[in-house]
Amino acid sequence: MGFFKKLFNPISKTIESGTFQERVAFKFDKITKGEKIPAPKYETEQKAYENIMKDEKIKKEIEQKHETLVENMNKFNIKSTEVINDTKSDKQYPTRETEIAHKNDPSWEYFFYEPPKDKMLPNRLTLREALEILRTKHEEIQIKPENHERLAEVKKSLSEHSAVQRIDEEKLNQMWKYFRPFARSDQERVTRKEDLAYLQNLLNRKEHEIGFLDIGKRDPKTLQSLEAREKAKILELEEIKKLEEIDNKLKKKLD
Asked: Residue ranges of the alpha helices (H) in the chain?
């Protein structure tokens, strides 16, 4: 059997290829003579097509040759060109190399390219403009009301800023609401841990020698002499030890 397969396989292949080429040539001759070959359809499309073709008017329109349509199609002129090299590798991203290359370029000051104003989308601003607006508004708040001249200058510079004139006021207010600078450290009020511990003892009904209104009076920063500050620190340590002893006694009682 293996011998016959080896013998007849090449013969059958040559016959099949010959018949296939003959069929292709025959079909090509029909196409050149004007035979219409519709594209293959899916089963659902085939059913819809059969239902449509039952209408004689639609069938005539499909089979009829429209000269105007042929003329319009012949007007199309398609030319093939080389592909434009527009890959992402050509774009410059905020890397060390671009930082060095554009070190003294103002448009690359924040390590990425800032587009010109005429090419930006509406209601968009750059990081530089956002920082300038936030800085100016923060300065406006920090200025005292008595300093009328400086306050007027800051308000004028803010109103004449290009981003303020270009961006909606509502969006600028939202930006100020969520990205405004925090309070300065010298204006913050910090609570001491000892005072919090004392308040916790009061809530837990623990006795203490110092009254509630004396909180904050033991701050060493309010004392002028160095000796007084050292004494205040010693007193604070003693108070902490007393609190720890009270906690230990309560734990023993509970145990």
From this structure: 2-32, 43-53, 56-63, 67-74, 96-101, 127-142, 148-159, 162-166, 169-179, 193-203, 226-254
pTM, full prediction:
0.36
Tokens for 86, please give them: 């527009």
Rounded CA-CA distance 115/144 in Å is 37
Q: In 3D, which of 216, 213, 246 has the Cα closest to residue 232? A: 216
Q: Each residue of 63-96: pLDDT tens digit?
A: 888 888 888 988 888 887 777 666 556 666 667 7
Give pairs for 204-211: CB < 8 Å, separation 24+.
206/243, 206/246, 206/250, 207/246, 208/242, 208/243, 209/242, 210/239
The number of angstroms, rounded, from the C-alpha of 77 to the middle of its chain's C-alpha atoms is: 43
